[in-house]
Write a structure and sequence with these properties.
By secondary structure, the protein is of the alpha/beta class. It is about 50% helix and about 15% strand. The protein has helices at about 5-15, 30-35, 40-45, 75-85, 105-115, 150-170, 180-195, 230-240, 270-275, 280-300, 305-345, 345-360, 360-375, 380-395, 400-410, 415-430, 445-455, 465-475, 510-520, 540-555, and strands at about 25, 50-55, 65-70, 90-100, 120-125, 130-135, 135-140, 145, 150, 175, 210-215, 245-250, 260-265, 500-505, 525-530. The strands form 4 sheets. Strands 6-7-15-14-11-10 form a 6-stranded mixed β-sheet, with helices on both faces. The protein has a 5-stranded parallel β-sheet with strand order 2-1-3-4-5. Strand 8 and strand 9 (about 150) form a beta hairpin. Helix 6 crosses helix 7 (about 180-195). Residues about 440-460 and about 550-565 have low confidence and may be disordered.
């Protein structure tokens, strides 16, 4: 299973179906992102696609000599815009592709609008999601619920997105969901209803072992998105932010104009593909080797003394220029990551985070947090991060210092809205909410932790394992408890699963993507992909929490909901 390949094949097929000749690719806001994640503009240009336009831009130039490949989501707005387009076509011929199932009524509307018979094809190609990497997908929904219930539009989008993933992977799965989450159950039922309604589309050749779709809720593991990260891709997202493979470096001191915004894509950047899952220490060595290789090639390129040298230089120049761009890009990124790590004591912060979630010595942890709180080098966001993690870990501790730490945040100049995040995280994913033991307090986990302590820790910054590690391990071994993760319907899987799709309501993370990547590498015969409403770093996760909890907070402040504050 490979979501990048699936979406890329759909787009390639669209372009090929239009035949030879100059073409324009007409998209909407969502499909523009979908296409950009799998195809570089230079790649599409080689396929005679010379123009890229948005359907919602009104004053486009009329170019009857161009064929139009239109790839849009099947929304009411897009059907309306397409109808207007077809009544007064700007291009010669139209090949229309919807990213998901389109109703017969909408097709009829388009047919009636096509007075000039410009449309040659109308098809459904199920690339209705953001393919982040071969085993990771996102729906780019930053806040999917309010008051811990689905926003109607977000539920519809998740249902459509998951149906699209299943259709593009050619899977008709058994569905399991987190029983403690009403949102997970509702999404599972909606996906099942879509599969039943579109039975002909999901009529794939049966495999010996049915695929599994496992739907879980971010609230069961609120810890993972709060942690600083130490693998290349995850660090870049946490410290700089990745938005559809683009990174904004405009705030980096002394940045050159051409590096203000860069693209990091494993599909088009070999160094990134080979290093995105490696830890920061390894990246430093590999960037040094890349620099040395580039310097050697620079020396050889400088020796142009004969006709054959000139010929060789011209032949190799594109690769040389590409390598030059790769080197300057990654040296800049790694340099900025190093600066941030050093300037803001991120090693010390991260070590304390790991001790909060993986160890159990309350007094030692509290002392370290208090020391970091008064350190002027530590960023406000990291002080808040540590307080939120402490609150999750020790909310039931008889002698917890949550209120003291929140007061200290105020002394450090952190505003009321941010201070409130400590309360919000407990409403969002506190002990009352969680059905899983994420801190290893049960006897079996305590024993494992003891033996791990005896053996020593390989890396103090990466001790934490996200909840999905335990879930996947149990699922593959046939030990995932049915009471906690029931099947939807009567069918049950008796064999070891082979194809697993995990979807996290409330967003996934690059740490969880790394977990899936590791399982795929180390578990022969098992193929896993993971997706979520969003791919979070701390900032986007705090937005998610604020949206989910705001209604609860307001109701409580008006006295509508009984109960006392925790501090």
């Amino acid at each position: 299973m490979n979501v990048i390949l699936a979406v890329k094949q759909y787009i390639t097929k669209m372009i090929e179906d239009a035949g030879p000749g100059m073409k324009v690719l007409l998209m909407d806001k969502d499909t523009t992102s979908i296409v950009s994640m799998v195809y570089a503009q230079s790649e599409i240009l080689q396929k005679e696609v010379y123009l890229f336009e948005r359907l919602d831009v009104a004053n486009r130039e009329t170019m009857k000599h161009l064929k139009c490949i239109c790839f849009v989501r099947p929304t009411a707005d897009n059907v309306s815009l397409l109808s207007l387009e077809l009544r007064s076509p700007k291009y010669g011929l139209y090949y229309i592709y919807f990213s998901n199932v389109i109703s017969k009524q909408d097709v009829k509307v388009l047919a009636e609008a096509d007075d000039q018979e410009a449309v040659r094809e109308v098809q459904e190609y199920y690339g209705d999601y953001i393919a982040v990497s071969p085993h990771v997908f996102s729906l780019n929904i930053t806040a999917c619920c309010k008051n811990f219930t689905w926003e109607h539009s977000a539920l519809d989008r998740c249902t459509q997105g998951l149906a699209s993933v299943l259709l593009s992977m050619k899977k008709c799965p058994m569905i399991r969901y987190q029983n403690s989450s009403e949102m997970a159950k509702r999404l599972a039922e909606n996906v099942k209803s879509t599969i039943n309604r579109e039975g002909a589309l999901f009529d794939f050749r049966r495999t010996d072992v049915a695929p599994i779709l496992l739907i879980i809720d971010r609230r069961d593991d609120p810890v993972t998105p709060l942690l600083n990260q130490w693998t290349y891709q995850a660090m870049v997202h946490e410290l700089l932010g990745i938005n559809n493979n683009r990174i904004d470096l405009s705030s980096v001191p002394g940045i050159s104009k051409e590096l203000r915004e860069i693209v990091l894509s494993a599909e088009h950047d070999e160094f990134y593909a080979n290093n995105m899952q490696l830890n920061f220490g390894e990246i430093g060595n590999n960037i040094k080797e890349l620099m040395e290789e580039f310097q050697q090639k620079s020396k050889s390129q400088a020796k142009v003394e004969s006709i054959s040298d000139m010929k060789s230089f011209i032949e190799n120049y594109p690769q040389f220029k590409k390598m030059s761009g790769t080197v300057s890009k990654h040296v800049t990124v790694v340099g900025e990551l190093s600066r941030l790590v050093g300037s803001h004591c991120l090693l010390e912060v991260s070590e304390t985070e790991q001790e909060i979630v993986c160890q159990s010595d309350h007094s030692v942890v509290l002392q370290k947090i208090q020391e970091l709180m008064t350190n002027p080098k530590v960023r406000d966001v990291d002080k808040l991060r540590l307080t939120m993690l402490y609150a999750l870990r020790y909310e039931k501790h008889s002698n917890n210092a949550i209120s003291r730490l929140v007061q200290e945040l105020g002394k450090q100049g952190i505003g009321e809205n941010q201070k409130r995040m400590t309360k919000m995280i407990l409403d969002y994913g506190g002990a009352k909410t969680r059905s899983s033991d994420i801190f290893g307090n049960d006897p079996v986990s305590m024993t494992k932790k003891f033996f791990k302590g005896l053996k020593g820790v390989e890396n103090v910054y990466t001790q934490h394992k996200p909840l999905i590690h335990q879930l996947l391990d149990n699922l593959i071994k046939g030990k995932l408890r049915e009471g906690m993760y029931p099947y939807l319907g009567t069918s049950q899987l008796r064999d070891r699963p082979q194809d697993v799709i995990i979807f996290i309501i409330g967003g996934t993370t690059y740490e969880e993507a790394l977990t899936v990547h590791t399982f795929n590498k180390t578990t022969p015969g098992v193929r896993i992909i993971i997706g979520g409403t969003h791919v979070h770093n701390l900032q986007s996760f705090m937005t998610e929490i604020s949206q989910a909890v705001t209604v609860v907070q307001h109701a409580r402040s008006r006295g509508q909901t009984p109960g006392q504050s925790r501090w």
